[in-house]
Amino acid sequence: MSAKLEELRKDLEELVKLQEAAVRPKVKDALALERRRWETDLATLQQNVLSSSGGTPATTSTVPKRYIVELTNYAFDQSDAFVKLFVTLDGVQVVPEEGVTCEFTENSLNLLVKDLNGKDYNLIVKNLLEPIDVSKSYRKIKSDLVAIYMKKVQPGKKWDCLTKTEKKVKDIKSSAFADLGGDDGDSKDPSAGIMNMMKKMYESGDSDTKRMIAKAWTEAQDKRDGEMKMPEM
After folding, report:
1. How far from each other are the two terminal CA atoms of the chain, in whole angstroms?
2. What is the pLDDT of residues 56-103, one digit of tens each?
3. Alpha-carbon distances, residue 205 vs 11, 169, 177, 190, 214 (angstroms)
4. pTM over 0.70
5. Could you give the strand order of the β-sheet that contains 132-142, starting from the edge strand earlier in sequence?
6. Which of 87, 93, 185, 221 could form a disulfide with 146 if both were Cys (CB 3.0 to 4.6 A apart)?
């Protein structure tokens, strides 16, 4: 058991070095997630060793397994200096400071809330619309809320949305509306124009783009009381 513990500790130390040396945002995010898993495994193994040495059989109930809940909902705001996200989590104020971490890169953030009501909560936002100043970005824990403050590299510049993916969807929708007018002055069918444009983008987009299109289409359907149907993609 002790040999396995030592091996895992060495593996974790090397993983930390790789994370610190990583440059690409996706690589950093993947290494950060793997690091948290290994840290949990190490803590579990250490607890088992302590239990065994004390004559108490180690059981799975000693360190219960926690599930990771992926967060997708948040409120968005901004000032001249900061872009702000507000993530609602009931009871988050009772989690220790070290249990709520937010890792920033120039174009992404990774919020992790550990052991809130027996679960871990994770929010990952990639491809931020503009670069942020990592050293001046931070998070605050409030009552039932985590507030994330991302320092703008270009103060005073307004962000139309949070990510480049959202911006791409908005631009495509604007382009679709601009192309609706016909040469003879008659308008083309708006539904057909938007459907074709969004279908093409959906087919060629990555997973984030597809998710944003699906969300935008759902919102449009709600506004039109179901008059338009989402095309098969």
Report:
1. 51
2. 544 444 556 788 999 999 999 999 999 999 999 999 999 999 999 999
3. 36, 10, 20, 22, 12
4. no
5. 75-78, 82-88, 145-152, 132-142
6. 87
